[in-house]
Amino acid sequence: MVVTVCLAGAALLVATTPVRRLHRVVRPSPPVSRPARSRSRRARSGTPDCAAAVAELATLLRAGLVPARAWQSVAGSPGRGAEVDAALVAAADAETDGRDVATALRQAVESHDPALATAIRALAAAWQVAARVGAPPAVVLERLAVSLREEADLADATATAMAGPRATAQVLAALPPLGLVLGQLVGASPVQTLVGTPAGRACAVVGVLLTAVGWWWARLLVRRAAPTVRADP
User: Fold this and answer.
1) Using H for helix, E for strand and C for coil, what is the string for 89-115?
2) 3 vs 54, 63, 148, 180, 210, CA distance in Å?
3) Which of 118, 128, 187, 225 is in Cβ range 3.0-4.6 Å of 102 for a Cys bridge?
């Protein structure tokens, strides 16, 4: 009975997640164009949108627009995420009303995306430092935009690099329960052997434990290799 419960638990906890995604591993993906890749990145994180807004703001300031007009122009640009737009609108309103822009940006951060929240706080810090020390805000924002783009590209490259190890871990974790299912289908009766004999029960317990340890170890290796990527394999 205990062995049966262990096998059922292993099948549910280990096999179901990778099986749902197994078609993504086996079926080759069609070529992705640059616009589609950009839309996919924007769907995962709003950091590229924030970087584009910072670059646009720097360009407008360098062109001679006053800060209030520059913030209003950037806040009215279409095609950005709702969270980025909310932060830009809050900053534009603060600049127009004579309030602190950095404080408005920090208060507008409500994103569940840590990378986007960090980018908006970095924008607030850059604007605050430029105002306090008298540095040209356009220069500071241009450098910030470059940094944000580099961080977004690095996160995207890291996620792409980790896709292979995650897929491999999923397939390897799915093989033991799938092997039992296939054995039952061809008439080999592996479940009866594992449940009905002492040696089979011992092998079942050891197999479940090793499968669980292997799954945990694969997750640990992937998380250590890519600590910024929080999705589990």
Assistant:
1) HHHHHHHHHCCCHHHHHHHCCCCCCHH
2) 59, 73, 52, 14, 14
3) 128
- Output 149 or 169, whichever has higher pLDDT: 149
pLDDT in tens, 108-146: 887 677 888 889 999 999 999 998 988 889 999 999 999
For the chain, what are the domain ranges? 2-36+157-225, 45-155
Global pTM reads: 0.59
Report the C-alpha gap between 140 and 48 in whole angstroms. 18
> Which residues lie below 8 Å from residue 232, measured CB to CB, with a gap of 6+?
219
Contact between 103 and 94 under an 8 Å Cβ cutoff? The reply is yes
DSSP for 167-181 reads HHHHHHHHHHHHHHH
What is the four-CA torsion angle of 154, 103, 91, 106, rounded to 10 degrees?
40
CATH 1.20.81.30: does it fit domain 45-155?
Answer: yes
In order of 45, 47, 80, 86, 193, the CA distances from 41 in angstroms are 6, 9, 12, 20, 49
pLDDT in tens, 185-203: 888 888 888 888 888 888 8
State the Cα–Cα distance between residues 129 and 47, nearest whole angstrom. 21
